[in-house]
Write a structure and sequence with these properties.
- By secondary structure, this protein is mainly beta.
- It is built from three helices and 15 strands.
- It has one domain.
- The chain is globular.
- The N terminus is likely disordered.
Length: about 250
């Protein structure tokens, strides 16, 4: 989640929380079959973003893409392992709006690719080129919280002070896909775990909770993603993503 520039200097405070608490389930609808790291049998595309630790000083992570032919088939890596950026709070199981952490768990990926650049072509998903008035509502008390919202160009919506004017950020939002965190249901209000978690362009530094790739790698992934294959993204420590709950070993 990329916050307004005025918020970029806020410090992330992480207490010494026991690992058992960090891994406790949250209400983000991030998981399938009751487990944070369970992968739906329908998923045939899997992105794995992993880091050795929860340490916020280490915001870089490994990014791997896999595909399988069916539920009983093994996962086969598609692209080489790349480096990705995660949030300034790094990885956090129980995050809150504005803490800058990247959420841990398994999430689906939204059916629309957005961007300020021209349609890259070769996409299986719908492409929406951003225009003036395209926002992501990150006001946790808004009725449209954690949604893409378009308002007439030149209009300042009530949620503007804590939200993102997507069309104004060409460098990071050249292209982006939505990671379905805090959806179905969306938890808003004082307990909101966060909003606007994207897969977007490399920032040359920690993100505000998103996952970022260099532009050439990002375009490859966006062209590869296919809604018919029910793609998901798994985010966590190396130990978590390679845990005993995985249905098939990754190659």
């Amino acid at each position: 989640m990329r916050r307004l520039r005025a918020l970029a200097g806020l410090a992330v405070v992480l207490s010494s929380v026991p690992l058992s608490v960090l891994l406790a389930p949250d209400r983000s609808a991030a998981s399938v079959s009751g487990s944070r790291f369970a992968i739906a049998s329908s998923a045939r595309q899997l992105i794995v973003v992993s880091s050795p630790t929860f340490d916020p000083a280490d915001y870089l992570a490994s990014f791997r893409s896999y595909r399988r032919a069916g539920p009983a088939a093994p996962w086969v890596q598609v692209y080489p392992t790349w480096q990705a950026e995660t949030g300034r709070g790094h990885l956090l199981s129980r995050r809150r709006e504005g803490d800058g952490a990247t959420p841990v768990g398994v999430f689906s990926i939204g059916p629309t690719v957005y961007g300020n650049y021209a349609d890259p072509g070769g996409l299986h998903e719908r492409y929406h080129r951003l225009v003036c008035g395209d926002w992501w509502d990150e006001d946790r008390y808004s009725s449209q919280y954690n949604r893409f919202v378009h308002v007439p160009c030149g209009t300042t919506p009530a949620f503007a002070s804590s939200s993102e004017a997507l069309w104004t950020d060409y460098s990071v939002y050249g292209y982006l896909a939505v990671i379905d965190f805090n959806v179905d249901p969306t938890v808003a209000g004082a307990d909101a775990p966060g909003s606007g978690i994207f897969l977007h362009v490399w920032e040359n530094g920690p993100t505000h909770g998103c996952v970022a790739l260099p532009l050439p790698d990002l375009v490859k992934v966006l062209r590869w993603l296919d809604p018919a294959d029910h793609p998901v993204i798994e985010i966590g420590t190396t130990a978590e993503v390679n845990g005993a709950g995985r249905p098939q070993a990754l190659t």
